[in-house]
């Protein structure tokens, strides 16, 4: 999994963060399959992780997104960001 290339990220106000919703999730999945071919994953068990989180100015660009198993994303990666 890619990691942020900086360690001095500052939180930005919620009103300035890029949105994320099911439409954008679907677009990412389509773009992923178009780019890498269909891995035949059960996408319902995966979260789309923002390498640089939206709360730190991360975007929805393809290179800032990464599919992760939901349990790893929520129990490991997100907990790390909670203490950033």
3D structure, described in words:
- The protein is of the alpha+beta class and 84 residues long.
- It has one domain.
- 33% of the residues lie in helices and 12% in strands.
- It contains two helices and two strands, in the order αββα.
- A two-stranded antiparallel ribbon has the order 1-2.
- The chain starts with 21 loop residues before the first helix and ends with a helix.
Task: Supply database-style keywords.
alpha+beta; two-stranded antiparallel ribbon; globular; 33% helix; 2 strands; 84 residues; 12% strand
Q: In what range is the share of β-strand residues?
A: 5-15%
Principal-axes geometry comes out as globular
Strand order of the largest sheet: 1-2
Terminal CA distance: 18 Å
Tally of alpha and pi helices: 2
Q: State the helicity in percent bands.
A: 25-40%
How much is the average pLDDT? 95
Strand count, sense and closure of the main sheet? 2 strands, antiparallel
Low-confidence stretches are none
Q: Can you summarize this structure?
A:
This protein is an alpha+beta fold and 84 residues long. It has helices at residues 22-36, 70-82, and strands at 46-50, 65-69.
Helices and strands in order, then pairings?
Blueprint: H1 22-36, E1 46-50, E2 65-69, H2 70-82
Antiparallel strand pairs: 1-2
């Amino acid at each position: 999994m890619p990691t942020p290339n900086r360690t001095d990220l500052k939180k930005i106000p919620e009103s300035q963060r890029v949105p994320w919703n099911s439409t954008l999730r679907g677009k990412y999945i389509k773009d992923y399959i178009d780019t890498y071919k269909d891995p035949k994953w059960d996408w319902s068990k995966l979260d789309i992780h923002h390498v640089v989180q939206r709360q730190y100015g991360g975007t929805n660009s393809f290179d800032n997104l990464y599919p992760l198993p939901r349990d790893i994303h929520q129990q490991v990666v997100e907990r790390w960001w909670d203490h950033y």
